[in-house]
Amino acid sequence: MEVFLIYLALFGTVLLLKFLSGYVYAYLIKKRKKEFGQQQDYYFRIVSGNIRYFNRLSPVEQEKFLFRTYLFHHQKKFHYVGVTTQPEMPVLISAVAVQLTMGLERFSLNYFKDIYVLKHDYHYGYYSLPFMGHVDNSGIYLSWDNFYQGIKNSSDVSNVGMHEMAHALAYVNFVTKTEEDRHFSQEFRYFSKVARPIFQAMQRGQRNLLGDYAATNYHEFWAVSVETFFGNPVRFQHQLPELYAAMVKLLNQDPVAQLKRPVES
Ligand SMILES: [Zn+2]
Fold first, then answer.
1. pTM for the full model?
2. How far is the centre of ligand 1, averaged over its atoms, from the C-alpha of 215 (Å)?
3. Is the pLDDT of residue 50 over 80?
4. Which of 29, 118, 216, 235 could form a disulfide with 220 if both were Cys (CB 3.0 to 4.6 A apart)?
5. CATH number of the domain that 167 lies in?
């Protein structure tokens, strides 16, 4: 009988804690939404002026995009190394992460608390080639020159921001497992069934629009696939239709379909 009562008390406590944490969470989101409401126009101006993807979203999706951008921005500490800080920098970097995870439930890339913004290409570790960006256990690193060119230049698929966020997304799901998105981690197995043979053929010398760098290793294959998915979706779908379809399923969004939609003003 006593054991039963203890169980009952424990069960009640757990239920109460669950209820309270849900309540606190709802309260915090409401508070954040209110703060965001005061800054929404500011975020809108910066994002819509620089990220074409955003301007093809519906008004409801645009609001979701901006609120996520706001939350992401405030969850990170941005460090500026040898570069003059501009207010749009953290907003645009956050927006690129949000674009990648727009179709997913989890979008904080929560393991990464620090984002480092450098000016140009830089040297890292023992590598002889300069880096445009990288991700390691200390944070996400981006060079602003390359980042900005990546979001502005429509003819070039290279988008270092998207590339590094793709590494970061895989990192939180599969390395630290600190922010597993159930859909993403389950669907990644199916993606790999399609992607691995293409990657292996590239390692044997086969060429396609992903380019030689994607054959370096499977991590780079993934990051370049993400860049190309957003940067050159029409050609991607045409040349590698199965891989494109697997990406659509995995990220739960379709850039080709999105291109056919009118631009919101
Ligand atoms: Zn990479």
1. 0.89
2. 11
3. yes
4. 216
5. 3.40.390
